[in-house]
Design brief:
433 residues, alpha/beta, nine-stranded mixed beta sheet, four-stranded antiparallel beta sheet, 13 helices, 21 strands, globular, binds zinc ion
Length: 433
């Protein structure tokens, strides 16, 4: 199903015209109302009048997360506080969070792009949608909530955690759809198993809409198999709007970007050069309709690629490849780039282990070491030592062939790796201590 055919299936010509008009307006507003951005443009010797087409975008300076931090809390806003109706903030792991403000129109845009996202994920006005994203300063909960309500679904604002109650409501309320992080979906499946609940028989759950952390195709297969649902990947970040930037359709072959609101580019993260279609690089987004905190060429740090070919679903919106990881999450181990999601793609192929893992990186005698902790299944745990050794050796070989790195594989007892109610913690990097 498509929520808004007019916008999601527009011809490229129409879309380009719309984007150009919106971009010009955005650059003008940002220049006039946002101090740091005016200074950046002045320093680069570019004025709003220099922007007449989408090609002119490359003349504009990038916006970095640090720009938002430096302008904490409200100096990056383009709208006066009297027009702001909502404030959210990203979880700042170090120092101050980044704060985002929404005008009433921004909330409407957000609801619209989330309605598209959830519709593509299987939610309809007849659905009961259990929203297990966290509510609060984090954008996940309220973003999915407003999108679900716009569609006309019955939204359950249960928020994250409280797992046994989640499962009780899934059963008693007959929820058709659930929205949460993919790691929490796996945890739900595990607890259901312990409670003796068979999702295919005992629940009416058909669709899962999962985001807020990178996850692999292999992890999707596991979630779909364990919960008996279709699992849809969604993408967003609080600085841009929250969830709703991009979403998968039923073909699960890349995520459609809501391009009438978010203009994407792919750049070489080292040089800033714009890369051609199909190249892998850092995703940069310009929020062409945002009023509260417009962002021009915002560097997301997420690594992906774009493709403009037609999708079988009928949407013309460009597709981005599933995000493998944030360049901030990328580990450099002995000079090799490693994303936790790459390790995950190996681990989930082994039936003898559970999809719960932790990468422990250290530096011993000036040499980086990688230890991968992963949980054994109950079966393997009670199996003989030889079987455990064989699994350990095979995982080690596959990691080596994928990354070109020797990792120490540590198989731990079932249920010893901490479970997450939100974003999973996958890495402990002791080199930074
Ligand atoms: Zn599609």
């Amino acid at each position: 199903m498509i929520w808004n055919e007019k916008c999601e299936c527009m011809s490229r010509e129409e879309l380009t015209a719309l984007q150009t008009e919106r971009l010009k307006k955005l650059v003008k507003t940002s220049y006039e109302n946002v101090g740091y951005y005016r200074k950046k443009m002045d320093d680069a010797g570019v004025t709003p009048d220099d922007i007449q087409s989408l090609e002119d975008l490359t003349k504009l300076p990038f916006t970095l997360k640090d720009d938002l931090r430096d302008n904490y809390p409200f100096k990056a806003f383009a709208a006066p506080m009297t027009d702001i109706v909502r404030l959210h903030a990203s979880s700042g792991t170090t120092g101050k969070p980044t704060v985002v403000g929404y005008t009433r129109n921004d909330i409407e845009t957000w609801s619209e792009v989330m309605a598209r996202t959830l519709t593509a994920g299987g939610v309809t006005k007849d659905s009961v949608m259990q929203n297990a994203y966290g509510y609060g300063l984090f954008t996940g909960g309220l973003g999915a909530h407003y999108g679900g309500e716009k569609i006309g679904a019955a939204v359950i604002p249960i928020s994250g955690g409280n797992t046994e109650k989640q499962i009780m409501l899934l059963k008693d309320f007959g929820s058709h759809a659930i929205s949460c992080t993919p790691s929490y979906a796996l945890y739900l499946a595990e607890v259901m198993k312990e409670m003796g609940i068979d999702p295919r028989k005992d629940l009416q759950l058909k669709f899962g809409i999962f985001g807020a952390e990178p996850w692999t195709h292999e992890m999707r297969e596991q979630i779909e198999e364990k919960l008996g649902i279709r699992a849809t990947d969604i993408y967003g970040l609080s600085e841009i709007i929250g969830p709703g930037v991009a979403f998968e359709c039923e073909y699960q072959d890349g995520l459609h970007i809501n391009e009438d609101h978010f203009l994407p580019e792919i750049i070489n993260p080292d040089t800033g050069e714009v890369l051609p279609e199909g190249s892998k690089g850092e995703l940069v987004i310009t929020t062409i309709t945002k009023e509260g905190i417009p962002l021009v060429r915002y560097r997301t740090r997420d690594v992906t690629s774009l493709r403009y070919d037609a999708c079988q679903c009928g949407r013309t919106l460009v597709r981005m490849e599933k995000v493998m990881g944030r360049s901030d999450d990328m580990l450099i181990i002995r000079g090799v780039n490693v994303f936790p999601s790459q390790v995950e793609s190996v681990l989930v192929k082994f039936e003898e282990i559970e999809p719960h893992y932790l990468l422990v990186v250290d530096r011993i005698n000036n040499l980086d070491t990688l230890e991968i902790w992963v949980e054994m299944s109950d079966e393997l745990f009670s199996d003989e030592v030889k079987a455990v050794e064989s699994v350990r050796a095979r995982i080690g070989e596959q990691i080596h062939s994928l990354l070109g790195l020797h990792a120490k594989i540590k198989l731990v007892e079932p249920k010893t790796i901490e479970r997450s109610m939100g974003k999973a913690k996958r890495v402990v990097d002791n080199r930074k201590l």
